[in-house]
Amino acid sequence: MHYEGMIIRPPSEAQSILLQVTLGCSHNKCTFCGTFTDKRFNIKKDEIIFEDIEFARENCKYQNRLFICDGDAMIVPQKRLVTILKRIKDRLPWVERVGLYANTKGIKMKTPEQLAELRQLGVKIAYMGLESGDDVTLKNVKKGANSQKMIEMGKKVKAAGIKLSLTVLVGLGARERSDIHAKETGRVLTAINPDFVGALSLMLIPGTALHDEHKKGDFELISADEMLAELGMMISCTHLTNGLFHANHASNYLPIRAKLPQDKEKTLKLISQALKGKIELKPEFMRAL
Question: Do 182 and 133 meet the contact criterion of CB atoms below 8 Å apart?
Answer without folding.
Answer: no
